[in-house]
């Protein structure tokens, strides 16, 4: 096993060279927000959709467009609005008078990268059209089912401030996002750089530095990253502590959690930890990798009761307490 890990480490050193290239290209455009860029890379490497949440003007849309710009791939930006229809997303059947037959017109979802901008502005029927695409990586139009291109990644943004004209995402859909990343304001120094760049009108564009095949190859290596059984037990304990807090000396959360993480939480925690280890150039997962991605994987998978909301307790506080209580291998 020692030799295998050594070999794996060498492969990762070779195959993860593009991580630096992508980060450099993103840094040209995005000032600060290192955390968000790293999370976008984790989603890309672990083949998981990402939901970015933050107040307007924090470069959420720009970051996603920039990531797509570093890859020779198709990119679609869909602005979600209350009057959007499922057909506007997936496509529709159009009657061809010459042929006296129906032909398919594919929608913008047939691309490698989908930016679902302000996803919570569209009604449930449009959001449900995304579900099949996100989970099965396919779309059904009429009687036919069409496979979506590989890689296929949905990167959605939502604005937590406005309640007017927004539709909260159903739990089933939120669960399909591997990560929910909450973005904060930039640091003072970064904000000064942002001002200078905008005042001068200098808007650099990222150059494509990788191909879709590189992503598919890197994803294969990410899955091969070694994960010890002790780490697997650690992941399962974290998820189970969100379901049955009283079994982990966290009885105080019993009436605050309405539901805990689903099995998808465990799967995504394992995959995101492997991707994080890959970004850090390691062929094996350590507990710190799990802790680093835990918040983003779990925060949208823990349901809070009215009692928790009344006491202003957030899922982040519950996760922090779980990480402090569950035994680290």
How would you describe this structure to a colleague?
- With 329 residues, this protein is of the alpha/beta class.
- It has two domains: 2-84 and 111-200, Rossmann fold, CATH 3.40.50; 227-325, Magnesium chelatase subunit I, C-Terminal domain (Helicase, Ruva Protein, domain 3).
- It has 14 helices and eleven strands.
- Strand 3 and strand 4 (101-106) form a beta hairpin.
- Helix 1 (2-15) runs antiparallel to helix 9 and helix 2 crosses helix 3 (34-46).
- The model has no long low-confidence stretch (mean pLDDT 86).
Features:
alpha/beta, 48% helix, two-stranded antiparallel sheet, 14 helices, Helicase, Ruva Protein, domain 3
SSE topology sketch:
Blueprint: H1 2-15, H2 17-29, H3 34-46, E1 49-53, H4 60-69, E2 75-79, H5 86-90, E3 91-96, E4 101-106, E5 113-117, H6 124-136, E6 138-141, E7 144-147, E8 153-158, H7 171-174, E9 177-182, H8 188-200, H9 212-224, H10 229-243, E10 257-259, H11 263-279, H12 287-298, E11 303-304, H13 306-310, H14 315-325
Parallel strand pairs: 1-8, 1-9, 2-5, 5-8
Antiparallel strand pairs: 3-4, 6-7, 10-11
Helix pairs in contact: 1-9, 2-3, 2-4, 3-11, 9-11, 10-11, 11-12, 12-14
Structural Rg: 21 Å
| CATH class category name of the largest domain | Alpha Beta
Number of helices: 14
Q: What are the segments in which pLDDT stays under 50 over at least 5 consecutive residues?
A: none
Q: What shape does the CA trace take?
A: globular
Q: What's the architecture of the largest domain in CATH terms?
A: 3-Layer(aba) Sandwich
- Spatial gap, N to C terminus: 19 Å
Percent range of helical residues: 40-55%
Sheet bearing the most strands, described?
5 strands, parallel
**Mean of the pLDDT scores?**
86
Beta-strand content estimate: 15-25%
Strand order of the largest sheet: 2-5-8-1-9
The figure for the number of domains is 2
Helix/strand structural class: alpha/beta
Order of helices and strands: HHHEHEHEEEHEEEHEHHHEHHEHH
The CATH topology of the largest domain corresponds to Rossmann fold
Number of strands: 11
CATH superfamily of the largest domain: P-loop containing nucleotide triphosphate hydrolases
């Amino acid at each position: 096993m020692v030799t295998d890990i050594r070999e794996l480490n060498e492969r990762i050193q070779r195959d993860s060279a593009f991580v630096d290239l992508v980060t450099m290209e993103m840094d040209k455009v995005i000032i600060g927000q290192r955390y968000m860029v790293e999370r976008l890379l984790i989603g890309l490497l672990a083949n998981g959709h990402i939901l970015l949440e933050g107040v307007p003007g924090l470069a959420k849309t720009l970051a996603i467009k920039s990531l797509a710009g570093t890859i020779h791939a198709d990119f679609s930006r869909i602005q979600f609005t209350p009057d959007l229809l499922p057909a506007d997303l997936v496509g529709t059947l159009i009657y061809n008078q010459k042929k006296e037959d129906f032909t398919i017109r594919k929608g913008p979802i047939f691309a490698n990268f989908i930016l679902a901008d302000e996803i919570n502005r569209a009604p449930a029927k449009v959001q449900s059209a995304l579900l099949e695409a996100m989970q099965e990586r396919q779309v059904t139009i009429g009687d036919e089912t069409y496979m979506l291109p590989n890689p296929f990644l949905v990167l959605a943004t939502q604005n937590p401030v406005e309640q007017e004209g927004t539709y909260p995402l159903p739990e089933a859909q939120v669960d399909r996002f591997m990560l929910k990343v909450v973005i904060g304001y930039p640091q003072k120094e970064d904000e000064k750089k942002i001002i200078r760049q905008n005042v001068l009108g200098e808007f650099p564009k990222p150059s494509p530095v990788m191909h879709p095949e590189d992503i598919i190859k890197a994803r294969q290596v990410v899955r091969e990253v070694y994960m010890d059984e002790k780490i697997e037990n650690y992941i399962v304990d974290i998820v189970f502590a969100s379901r049955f807090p009283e079994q982990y000396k966290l009885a105080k959360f019993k009436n605050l959690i309405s539901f805990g993480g689903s099995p998808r939480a465990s799967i995504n925690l394992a995959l995101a930890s492997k991707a994080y280890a890959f970004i850090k150039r390691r062929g094996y997962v350590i507990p710190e990798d799990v802790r680093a991605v835990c918040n983003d994987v779990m925060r949208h998978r823990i349901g809070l009761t009215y009692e928790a909301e009344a006491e202003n307790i957030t899922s982040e506080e519950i996760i922090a307490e779980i990480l402090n209580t569950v035994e680290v291998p």
